[in-house]
Amino acid sequence: MRLVFYMIGCFLTTLCLHARDVNTFSANDVLGFPMNTVFEILEGDNDVVWFGTNEGLVSYDGVTFQTFINPDYDIAYTRLIKDPEGRIWCVNFSGQLFYLENDTLHLAMELENKSEFISDFSLIDFPTVYVFRSSHGEVLSYDFISKSTTSLREFENMSIFSLQIDEALIVYAFSKITENKESCLVQTYGLSKNKLVEKAVLDYTDFPCIIGKFFLIGTNNAGHAISIMDNALVYDLDGLDTIWIDESINHYAFNHAEIIDNELWLLTKTGGFIWNLEQGKPSGSVLSDVSVSSVMKDKNGNFWIGSLTRGLFVVSNRNFTHIRLPKLHVSQAVSDFEEGIYIQDDGGMIYFTKPPYENVVTISKEPLERAPLFYDTASSRLYIGHDRCFYDVRSQSFYDKSRQDSYSFIFKKAVSIGGGAFIGTSYGTSFISRSNSKTLVDFPFYQFSEDVVRPWRSNHIALTDSNLYVDYLDGLHVFTRDKNIEKILHNGRDIQVQQMITDDFEKNTIWLSTKNHLLLRITEKEVVETLFFTNIITQLLRTEKYLFAAHRKGIYRINIENGSIDHIDQANGWTPSIVKALFEWDGQLLIVGGNSIQFLPLDDTYAPIPIPQIYITDVRVKNQSYPKDVVVKLPARRNEIFVKVRAMSVRSQNMMSFEYQLSGQSDEWYSTPSNAQEIRLYNLNAGNYTLKVRACTPSGNCSFPESVNFYVMMPLYGRWWFLLLLLLLIIGSVVGLVQRKNKIRSERSRVEAERQLFLKEVYKSRISALRAQMNPHFMFNALNAIQEFILSNQQYIASEYLADFADLMRMYLSHSTKDAITLAEEEQLLRLYLRLENMRFDNTIEVTFRIDQNLDKESVYIPLMLVQPHVENSIKHGLMHANGQSKTLLIEFELKDSDTLLCVIEDNGIGRSASGKINANKTHKSFSSDANQDRIKLMNQVREQKVTLRIFDLEEEGRQGTRVEIELPIERQ
To answer: Cα torsion at 877, 878, 884, 885 (round to 10°)?
Structure first.
């Protein structure tokens, strides 16, 4: 059998561990610190942290590390001091003193002997710098203004040290005064304004003066001497009284010492040791396996610790401590319920440790298969789930399943049911008895058979007084005392368990986490509380006051009484590792995982993450940088501004966010994408803006905002002078357009008037031509009548006719230049014309004139020769062929309305039909009718009020004859 050799006995090996160290994290790994050797650390202005390293002077602003060197000299720098104007001063190991200004490391002074070391310097009287050469016992004065160096004093055969206490600089000179007797002469001087003033000379007996390594360190009101040979001795400088002795520290391992908050930090090659000066006892240790060189506490309470070989470390919570498990990496861990812990590492070895957990005992001789561990208190056995074996604590021996009183089986999780028996989960739910089944009589589930228990693959298990909860592949089931099996659902869905424990402080209650980020509390088979987390809970621990829930990135602490939740993560001092188990011991939370056991007080207050101060480091427009207090001007189009920000927050550097508000556009705060430390704004409208930027911690607390003022120029089209010019241009353009339009309209009107005038003239010419044609036609008819009278020997009539004709011609000639004549003149012409025509017809035509009394014949004008042709047609075509009847002709002028004159010419001739038949065979066409029709058309072309001509046959009214109606627009002059 593979484990038979364990029956012989257990091989025990004890691993001696260091005492508990304060938790740290590596700034090289987390923050990207670039150096492995750090000599000194200083917090400067604007939260910038400075580091003297073997490869240069390094600054960290919360975002990036920047290195400065003077390439002409040794680039290993130490002893960092800030002057009143913010410059950083440092020395190297080759006798040079430097200061950093405008990102350039300048040489201030150097010793003549380049191999000599400047042991110390002080800026208490800046711009005077005091420089100390301890090996030669000399004090130098360097004037920063004049760049000159002066020797103030040399001390022969003495070593000098300086110490600043209560804003005063004191110089100590140490020397042996006898060869045989170990005594020490101490001279003290006050140094101020380039003068050394002697204060006291003391002779101390039995004081190890300058033996091994010697340091002076001080606080605001006290100074202490540290002398190290075979042990560390701390003295009060007032009387050189011994106040602490630590024989574990010798001068070979000692590196440096600092006093912070009345605690002395002795920094050695094997870590840092912390001594409380007020209480006179140790108060902690740090980095036990690291050569520690320097320590600094920043204003947010973080401790920065430098090392000579492994770079930079940070302590964010002094209450969080740990013990390292050398050469172990925890795979499983289980408690013996008496505060002892059994651990299996990744290699399969089993270990045991108990309070104060400073020693680890190896209890397995060879590796076992990694498997779940279960400790049964009733039988004092440690069961290993996959190896079918157990470890008997009483006999300190391993046994496998061949032992007769053992009913071991492979399990994943198990719970004790008392009397040395337990129930476990595996391919089916089963139980093991220590010796016989009688121990199970009082257990309510002892009669479970395989078909009752559900032989399904199961994972987690929890037991209360009333119920047994088993996590199967198809969900969570509960077995009750009456052997009922019920399935527990959450919101109608199966519960997929990640971890499950019994609540030892609340009856019949279990807690479980699910694979979908839930934490459930189940009491009496009912889900009574549900919590959601962004991380999947992998380990649970219930204490009297809290429920602790571990996940990959930290641990939640849930207060059972008030429901408040705290998050323990790297910001609170937890060293990230995969948590394998949580335990409670002596008021502390024990976190087992990785290669350590971490300790934290259960009621730790978890100092809130300090609200970081935000700084605007750069304002850029088109690749040009501006100071943040300068009002930047942006162009109107394609504008873009970049603002770089930073904030020092070691505890929440990866979780801190930056928010900005752009007043003038919106009062809402916006988060930068992916916590970017650069804000980019572009394509802004014209106007004044104030950009406010702040840094926020994960809890939502934000810093006081920093501001940048800028404005976007108004585009050319928005400036007042441009608008004024544009307005004037628009007005000018409108005026010009109106004038041009008026000019064009006027020109068109003129052209149209000329065209109309031309047309009128053309029409008038045509009308005149027609009228001129009509006059000869009438004259021709009149002359024919005269000729007829002469041939018929009617000389008297011919003479009278000729006289009337002459009068008529005279009247036509008189009106020939006119377009219109008065109604009276028209009546006179018509009467004279009808008289001549009637003479031709032997006065057989009865002519009747009717003129509306409302017409003023002398002021109403009508077109010349417009009525006469129709009168002529009535006689020639109507009355002339009417034989055997009286011939009547009516000429009527009636006022139709105020602007229209109606002229009616009515005869009782033969009518148009009969006349048309008579004239059908004639080749001669009536000229006057056609000419008059054309004339009316021409007149209507040049008049706004048209002339209307209508001709009716009276046959429609049952009479004989023709009626002509002419509507004429009245023209008055």
So the answer is: -160
Q: Which two tokens stand for residue 192?
A: 């101020």
Edge-first strand listing for the sheet containing 303-307:
25-26, 312-315, 303-307, 292-297
DSSP string, 930-973: HHHHHHHHHHHHH-SSPPEEEEEEGGGGT--SEEEEEEEE-EE-
Handedness of CA 755, 756, 760, 766 (dihedral sign): positive
Q: What is the pLDDT of residues 580-628, one digit of tens each?
A: 999 999 999 999 999 999 999 999 887 677 788 888 888 998 888 888 8
- Per the prediction, the chain carries an average pLDDT of 82
Q: What span, in angstroms and rounded, lies between the C-alpha atoms of 602 and 604?
A: 6
The whole-number pLDDT of residue 90 equals 96
For position 177, what pLDDT does the model report? 55
How many degrees, rounded to 5, is the angle at CA 564 between CA 558 and CA 567?
A: 60
What the block records as the tokens of 230 is 């075979």
Q: What is the dihedral of CA 761, 766, 767, 769, to 10 degrees?
A: 120
SS3 content of the chain, % helix, strand, coil (to 5): 20, 45, 40
**What is the Cα–Cα distance from 639 to 712, expressed in whole angstroms?**
8
Q: Is 203 helix (H, G, I), strand (E, B) or coil?
A: strand
Ranges of residues in the chain whose predicted pLDDT is under 50: 1-12, 180, 404-407, 434-451, 770, 774
Q: pLDDT, tens digit, for every residue of 912-924?
A: 888 878 777 665 5
End-to-end CA distance of the chain: 149
Picking from 520, 543, 544, 522, the residue whose alpha carbon sits closest to that of residue 533 is 520
| Residues 575, 598 contacting (CB under 8 angstroms) | yes
Is 846 within 8 Å of 835 (Cβ atoms)?
A: no
Cα dihedral 363, 364, 369, 370, rounded to 10, equals 30
Which residues 6+ apart lie within 8 Å of 500 measured at CB? 413, 460, 461, 462, 469, 471, 510, 511, 512, 513, 540
Distance CA(682)–CA(415), nearest Å, equals 64
Distance (Å, whole) CA 129 – CA 107: 13
Residue recorded with tokens 């920047």: 66
Paired tokens of 363: 């209890």
Region of 370 please: left (phi>0), alpha (psi -120 to 50) or beta.
beta
